[in-house]
Amino acid sequence: MILTTPLAAIGRSTLALLATIGRVTLFALSALSHILRPPFYPREFGTALLNIGWFSLPVVGLTAIFTGGALALQIYAGGQRFSAEAVVPQIVAIGMVRELGPVLVGLMIAARVTSSIAAEIATMKVTEQIDALVTLSTHPMKYLTAPRVLAAVITVPVLVGIGDIIGIWGGFLVGTGQLGFAPGTYIQNTWDFLETPDVVSSLVKGAVFGFIAAVMGCYHGMNSGRGAQGVGRATKSSVEAAAILILAANFLLTNMFFSS
Length: 260
Known about the structure:
This protein is mainly α. The chain has helices at 4-36, 42-52, 57-79, 88-126, 129-135, 140-177, 183-193, 196-222, 227-258. It has nine helices and no strands.
């Protein structure tokens, strides 16, 4: 009995994890199916575009420019040990476009958008607004989840592209203003080093991260507990799940694009 108790606990935890994965997967597939089938709600979609895309630009821009500048400083300081300071433009470009740009934008979206979606939908559930939608023959998945997921899939790659550009620009400002690089040479090295697969992988990551962030926010909001504590737990759980899944998806996508 003493030996089987830990095994039973491990088994229960494993089954609970698998059940959660199954529920999230079914929820994501349901969201995709509702995106593809009418009716559509363009007003909700437009609002989601603004909230996820436009209003996220300041935090994305500030995060990217400081990251690009710090990356240039770090690469220059590290390159001095091997007399390889000249590689700063190339490494800043590939580092921002392949990894730092998509991941940082994804995490910022998880912190800002996922939490907002979860808190909004959880509050609607607590105040029985979702029940009111059902009473009015409006499917909650169609009205609440589908527009937000579609908007995230569309806007987050755009944010990633903008973040990549601003991050490279941050590295350019530090490189030319503090590290002594010639502007023309810096730009030419950046342009020559980047390749189409780098940009494509960055945008694909953005779409996947946007999907994860929106689905996690909607899922935890729809399944929140009652009361203020339920809303708080749903918001916290949504951000944690989105951040972990974004990092895991980043590893898988990086392996898929660049393993060779």
